[in-house]
Design a protein that fits this description.
mainly alpha
Length: 182
């Protein structure tokens, strides 16, 4: 139920940003940059929500049979949640750089707005997809822990390998936002 509430809140926020941009005449560089930031936060969060919920259901089932494995199960569940945090960080950085969260509000050309939007794409896409696939790998890891609790470390390493691409997306978006956009 909490997943549904968060997904609905995210959709409402995203629709609110887009409607505000369209109806207030912000279809300029600033509006395009804001849509990029909003989509990054939303899609990374959505991927994490779906993965956390799915892995959490499996972890609850395994924990009923093996309560002593709770710590390992919890770590496997939490891993796909980091992409939502990464998306939030990028959204926050873009809002800071645009002057929306303090400072002087930047006036952007349409080209600069698209530059921000494109700079957000690596995190936007890698965050969504890696969260979903990391959730699948973590779910498989739950089965490993259910059969052999000592294999929890191996399961976490396998799940963390998918995280690599979210970290690369975060890095590329961060570097593009700070060093490629004038």
């Amino acid at each position: 139920m909490a997943m549904l509430v968060w997904a609905i809140m995210g959709m409402v926020s995203l629709v609110g940003v887009i409607v505000t941009i369209l109806f207030t005449g912000l279809v300029d560089g600033l509006g395009i940059a804001l849509v990029g930031a909003a989509l990054t936060v939303f899609l990374c969060g959505l991927g994490s929500i779906l993965a956390l919920g799915s892995v959490g259901e499996g972890a609850a089932a395994v924990a009923t049979e093996k309560p002593e494995a709770f710590g390992k199960l919890l770590l496997l569940q939490v891993l796909p949640g980091t992409q939502g945090i990464y998306g939030f960080i990028i959204g926050f950085i873009v809002l800071l750089k645009l002057g929306i969260l303090g400072g002087e509000l930047q006036e952007l050309t349409v080209q600069q707005g698209w530059n921000y939007f494109v700079a957000c794409l690596p995190m936007m896409l890698s965050g969504l997809l890696s969260a979903l696939y990391q959730g699948r790998v973590s779910s498989a890891g739950l089965k490993m822990v259910a059969k052999d609790p000592a294999s929890g470390g191996k399961a976490m390493i396998m799940s963390a390998m998918v995280e690599t691409y979210a970290v690369l997306g975060l890095l590329v978006t961060f570097l593009a936002t700070f060093f490629l956009i004038k």
